[in-house]
Design goal:
about 140 residues; 2 strands
Length: about 140
């Protein structure tokens, strides 16, 4: 399962999740009723309920009106094959740690360039697979 699949599934009017438990779902059901199967990672959990919740949440947040600002979802990690950058809030100084000066500058273009650089560095370091997808697209 990935962000592209969330966007595709979000276009459906109805979704039904069949959640297997322990060894999964009867093969006859899989062969005759299941249209898509998803994995949320390379690990095993007891049943499909938690996976369904993860998938549901990623779809629901894309519905207009669910988030305060849909642009927030459009700039999240995986929308551009880049991990998201760090975020800072007020106060400007917290336990002797300052918000980066660029964020206080008011220069929106430079801030966006700074954020992009951070996203690229973070993705390159933590998710080389995504970095390759990003570089091949751009």
């Amino acid at each position: 399962f990935n962000q592209n699949e969330a966007q595709k599934l979000g276009k459906n009017k109805n979704l039904v999740f069949i959640c297997g438990h322990y060894k999964g779902i009867d093969q006859r059901v899989r062969d005759n009723l299941v249209t898509d199967e998803y994995s949320i990672g390379d690990y095993v959990i007891t049943g499909g309920e938690l996976s369904s919740l993860v998938i549901s949440d990623s779809i629901i947040r894309l519905i207009p009106g669910v988030l305060n600002n849909i642009e927030s979802a459009e700039t999240d990690s995986f929308e551009s094959n880049l991990l998201d950058c760090e975020y800072y809030t007020r106060p400007e100084l917290y336990r002797d740690m300052k918000v980066p000066e660029i964020l206080l500058s008011g220069h929106h273009q430079k801030i966006e360039e700074w954020k992009l650089k951070l996203k690229e560095e973070k993705t390159k370091k933590n998710r080389p697979d995504l970095w390759l997808k990003y570089k091949n697209k751009n």
